[in-house]
Amino acid sequence: MPVFMVMLGAPGAGKGTQAKQLSEKLGLPHVSSGDLFRENIKNKTDLGKLASSYIEKGDLVPDDVTISMVKDRLSRPDCAKGAILDGFPRTAAQAKALDAMLEELGYKIGLVPLIEVPESVLMARLTGRWTCRENGHVFHTLFNPPKQSGICDLDGSELYQRPDDTPETVANRIRVYQEQTAPLIEYYEVTGVLEQIDGNQEIEQVNQDLLAVVPSVD
Ligand code: AP5
Ligand code: MG
Question: N or C, which end of the chain is more exposed by having fewer CB within 10 Å?
């Protein structure tokens, strides 16, 4: 049975960091809506142009375009085994659309890890983050420094600071998370798939805690 997981948590909680590691360990694709938008921005597509006007302010991109972008990604053959979703869903409408997409395929969400980190930690995590251009691997100047400054340890590509990682935009992203995404915690709690994970520990420890609750992938 394919395993579909949704990584839930505030901006900076470590969703991308953990999803990347789980993806390699479990052999499941990492489907990040933020990465898909950034790829569109890099390629200057119409979707990229539309998305960037929201992303640069830290607001959510409208549901209709976001849902169809993710639906398109999940319909690719590599998702037949399941996927690790990161950054999607972020609204009640997106959560319902995801349930419908999976139901159409005869699947359902197996696990929703909620990575919990105190709000006071998020700002320092994001303003010190460096992201790799090629594959979105993430580092941190203090908490997870690359071996060579400015270069990704994993694929040698350039590291850059995301334009939406400024203090003002981060503050808005946290607000938007509280208002629009945090209600999904209850949505997944009632279906029994939510697992609380302490995200305020070493990256490796968070990863161990996640692996302990992941259903087996065949
Ligand atoms: P997105 O790219 O999803 O950003 P986000 O949710 O704001 O999350 P982040 O990527 O900032 O945080 P993360 O939890 O992945 O943390 P990370 O692992 O990097 O979305 C960007 C924008 O796109 C949104 O604002 C919105 O505009 C738009 N968008 C995307 N999806 C959308 C949707 N579904 N609907 C509408 N709009 C959408 O870690 C952060 C830092 O902390 C790193 O430097 C890392 O090295 C460090 N770190 C990680 N774990 C630890 C640890 N355990 N200890 C110490 N440091 C750690
Ligand atoms: Mg991320």
Answer: C
3-state SS class at 193? coil
For ligand 1, atom 40, the nearest C-alpha belongs to 12
pTM of the model: 0.96
Question: How far apart (Å, rounded) are the C-alpha atoms in residues 91 and 88?
Answer: 8
pLDDT per residue over 43-98, tens digit each? 999 999 999 999 999 999 999 999 999 999 999 999 999 999 999 999 999 999 99
- The span from the CA of 159 to the CA of 72, in Å, is 28
Domain boundaries, the chain: 3-117+181-213
Query: CA-based angle 33:39:45, to the nearest 5?
Result: 110
* Helices and strands of the chain, counted as H and E runs: 9, 8
CATH 3.40.50.2300 given to domain 3-117+181-213 = no
Tokens describing residue 7: 């990584």
Where in the chain does DSSP place strands (E)? 3-7, 30-32, 82-86, 109-116, 129-132, 138-140, 159-160, 194-198
Whole-number Å distance between alpha carbons of 147 and 158: 13
Residue from 6, 7, 8, 15 whose mutation best tests the ligand 1 pocket (most atoms within 8 A of CB): 15
